[in-house]
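FAQ: What does a multi-protein file look like?

Like this. Sequence, then tokens, then the next protein.
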Amino acid sequence: MDPITDPAGRPPGPPPPFASPPTKAREIGADGAAEPADSSPPDGLSALVGEVRQLASDAKTLAEAELAFQTSRARYVAGSAQKIAVFGVAAFVLAFFALGALTVGLLLALTPLVTAWGATAIVVGALAIAAFLCIKAATTRIARMSAAIGGEDKRR
């Protein structure tokens, strides 16, 4: 036997491109007519069908695992978002009261220097200027966002 050929005498490597698929041997029936050995598909096709079934089974398992993972992830995010919202509201309330206390403190500190009406005018004026600057910054950012989303540049 030549080491370059296999036991059947064929060279190693892939089969010829237009080779016919192997067929099962036919059995001779009692009446002498040729009958197929069985009605199952050829070995190559049954192997392919088995592989496709295994692939479908793996895909189903993967989809179920992915669904379970994303469901647990969504539950975690929902629970975290709820806690974040509670802490955010608490921070806003505390900051609101801190600013109220600061306002009262400024009024009390400025009263001996510029009278009660003068202290009130200074504190209200400073708060009004701060509020105006915040509103101006917010409207500028809203205009930029609208331009970016709408594709128009309104700053021309």
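And here is the next protein:
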Amino acid sequence: MVFDEEVGVTSSATVFSIRRARKADLPAIEEMMVVLFPNTKLRHLPYDVFFIAERSGMPIGFCHLRMRDDRCYISGLGVLAHYREHGFGTALMREALSYADGHGARVTYLKVRALNTASKLYLSLGFFEKRMGETLVLVRKRPS
């Protein structure tokens, strides 16, 4: 895939973009959250940041993060089932991590279930594991 700053990520079959979500995007993000994480309570705080992935203008994924001082917490990453395994989740995480690094996060945290298949994605992006029972807390220190 080739990255194009104007459009997003481009391949011969797919054109999509990743951008910081606007207030008008929140209903679409909330709808995706309900579909992808039906047992999760929707809670947005004033300092939350969302990134949205779109394909041909249609929302297909999101990343939700919270910045607190020099820490970043990834609160959610989701891509609609039909669009998985095409690099959208990776692109969303890279954008979120770039934002966190650029806004002074020294450490980024992410909780996942131990059997979550996306764990290998997170590990490939520099996270390391800290196990807490059935939950993994993945930690990433900002690259020097």
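Q: Is there any per-entry metadata?
A: Some entries carry free-text notes. For the entry above: Residues 88-102 form the longest helix (15 residues).
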